Prior knowledge:
single chain; alpha/beta; TIM Barrel; 2 domains; three-stranded antiparallel sheet; 13 helices; globular
Amino acid sequence: MSFKGLQPIHYAGREVWPLVEGGKGVSATNHASSGAWAAAGGIGTISAVNADSYDPTGKIIPQVYEQLTRRERHERLIEYSIAGAVEQVKRAHEIAGGKGAININVLWEMGGAQPILEGVLSQTQGMVAGVTCGAGMPYKLSEIASRYNVSYLPIVSSARAFRLLWKRAYHKYPDLLGAVVYEDPWLAGGHNGLSNAENPLEPQDPYPRVAALRETMRAEGVSERVPIVMAGGVWFLREWDNWIDNPELGSIAFQFGTRPLLTTESPIPQGWKDALRELNPGDVLLHKFSPTGFYSSAVRNPFLRALEARSERQVPYSKVEAGEHTVRLDVGVKGKNFWVTPKDLDRARSWANQGFTDGLRTPDDTIIFVAPAERATIQQDQKDCMGCLSHCGFSSWMDHDDYTTGRLADPRSFCIQKTLQDIAHGEPVDQNLMFAGHAAYRFKQDPFYSNNFTPTVKELVDRILTGD
Length: 468
């Protein structure tokens, strides 16, 4: 018996539990976890973002980029991405054994999103039930889904965003709208859809936002059968009992992104799983360092703290003497003509005395100060760019037109491809970006995980269905 008589929903022509595995990103969700989630009767979600491929012995094939130009490396990335996602879908489909459903998740702002999505769907027909897509405004998602007869599930953080998508594109393909994912920008892990009008430090209650989304869907004539998926901050279903069977909200499903990380089938390394058990409230930071330009939420580990410190060692400059910029900067810039305030000159000299001797310009007419080794890493990572995003603030790459954003590369950011590949494949968790939802501290508090217990996906889904 499920919690509060939670009922299965009809999705993509089948009956499934209204429980969705969050897609997450690079190799953090694969065939093993998503296939098992579907086998337990839910909607499993494979991350189709730089998914792993395997050699004939079953070992993961390292994604190496030996091409000389970014454009060539970008083409190689697209090849890797399609091959990996196709392999993951086939394996998940086999594990699911005809139960539940398998979705794939793509980021619209990833480099080559459209050719990757089309390449995967063309080779996995009959295996993929739907495509979840966020990180941007994926206007073409419905059109692509219609070509391959799969459901599409846009990820939005407001009713306004859904209305824009619907009016511009989605109204043409209403029958394939599988669900609308409401991803709470203050609670979800990974990239968050905060608008310029919303304060990252002032979270809003998700209920009125989701009620407004349903109201908008009704006003646009969207079928009542199309569920809204609540994503971000969901742990115990009993905490959401007023959402279930609620006429104002209509059909509701729940997405679990963080909890499935700590299962036996989860592909993340043991060190990452162990670190999840030690988190406390407030250990996940909503920050703006991502090269995508979006806010994102990750564990405030030494990697993230180093980015915070890098941005704190920052002074504005002018190319000419003007206003309060009355003194020449004499550290970090090797005789170049930069004018700063007397106070900022003192700060810059102080940082140089601490070993942060190298100045790097940012696109916002500021200079940050870093140690020589950090400068070398930043510049090498920028040179190694393989175009994993449609627009990258860190490297100035753009995947179309003249292949550049036209802006100075931003040394306050980082290579997201490198760090996500590294943490997913066993590199130190404290030296890489560790995405997590803001409820991750509950691993430490939830008795289900006591005595170092790690559930199977089936055990986790069964537990969730009890309300806990």
